[in-house]
Design goal:
Blueprint (H helix, E strand, L loop, with lengths): L1 H13 L1 H7 L2 E2 L2 H6 L6 E3 L20 E3 L20 E3 L20 E3 L20 E3 L20 E3 L20 E3 L20 E3 L20 E3 L20 E4 L17 E4 L13
Parallel strand pairs: 1-2, 2-3, 3-4, 4-5, 5-6, 6-7, 7-8, 8-9, 9-10, 10-11, 11-12
Amino acid sequence: MKNLILTVIIATFLFPVRLIAASGTYNNWKSALEEKAKVKVIKMTYKNIDTIPDILDKFPNLEEIQMSNNSIRTLPASLFRCKKLKKLILFRNKIKVLPEAIGGLSNLEEISMGYNRLTALPDSLCYLSKLTYMNFSGNEIAKFPADIGNLQQLQTITVPNNQISRLPASITSLQNLAFLDAGNNYLETLPQDIGNLGNLQFLYLNRNRIDAIPASLAQCEKLQELDLVQSGVISLPPQLANIRRLEYVYIDNRIMPFYQDPRNVRRQRVIVVDGSATVYRMSHN
């Protein structure tokens, strides 16, 4: 057994590209083009790449693109002909436009384009019926597509540090949504029927301009963590005390908390956070 482990370790150091290729993951274009049909994952991170060659449709079985932490500015047309693509991970690049053609990637399940230079999201994003995860944090996006509610498989929306002023009314139709982070935006109101998000577990609305939290939020019986630090609100609906699964509520010293239900007081923790704090949620740990 020891000899086998030693052999694997030596092989990993001596033949890393070959081992990666054997798993369907390729980290350079030359190797990928030599075995087009075997390519399932293109992984090229931290390589200072500024251009993706327009050859992605040459890989008929491509399912995942990981090209985060580069200097990519535009997306090639061939990307949108990759009909088997499931994951598009382009975190920390310099992309300014997500083309409408993204809507043609019918098998896409995950898109992560945080910390680029996007100012808008295309309406065609709402055609991606298999999408479960989206991350557009740290861009300059001003609004969501109106028909975001069409994405019935969506479980995670991560859009903090943008310029979003309102959530579309259709967002409350997302029956599988469990995680919504819209912190550090320009939100002024929330949909009055936000309580329709029956599977919502984590809701982060810190650093916004919200005038009030709808009482219907108390209908989100699976809610576990709520962040309202510097959200703009000055009081919380008393009905929140009835959410039995609610464990952590983060507020600042300007917000009047709700009176806790004695039946839930041991479980619920209302935590007053200093306004300058940036790391305080349990989910940060």
